[in-house]
Amino acid sequence: MKKGCVAVRVGLEEDEGEFKRFLIPISYLNHPLFKDLLDKSQEVYGFDSSGPLTLPCSVDEFLHLRWHIEHESKPSHHRQNHRHHASFSCPTPCLDLSHL
């Protein structure tokens, strides 16, 4: 595993156990949006879990979340022009990204 990263499994039980593994920077763990997802993970799976951290959201939702975290950390003069991403609606009740 790459230094400074943590492995996560992303997927929904309804998707017939289709989970995808991602390596994310440890810094994501401090991001407010990611903290919301960690809270949801604790509600769904509890603290007793072996293996990678399992996040209860769709892969598409996770990729959208990751996009926001990555683009917030990069200074950009046209960040305001990317409002089309704010219309994302979560296909599951796990994480509300509608305010983005």
Low-pLDDT regions: 79-100
- Give the neighbour order of strands across the main sheet: 2-1-3
Domain count: 1
Distance between the termini: 31 Å
Radius of gyration: 14 Å
| Strand percentage | 15-25%
Note the quaternary state here: single chain
What does this structure look like?
The protein has two helices and three strands; from the N terminus they run ββαβα. It has one domain. It is 28% helix and 15% strand. The protein has 100 residues and is α+β, with helices and mostly antiparallel strands. It comes from Dioscorea alata (Purple yam). This is Small auxin-up RNA protein.
Fold topology:
Elements: E1 5-10, E2 20-25, H1 32-45, E3 53-55, H2 59-72
Parallel strand pairs: 1-3
Antiparallel strand pairs: 1-2
Protein name: Small auxin-up RNA protein
Organism: Dioscorea alata (Purple yam)
Provide tags for this entry.
100 residues, alpha+beta, Small auxin-up RNA protein
Quick summary:
The chain is α+β, with helices and mostly antiparallel strands and 100 residues long.
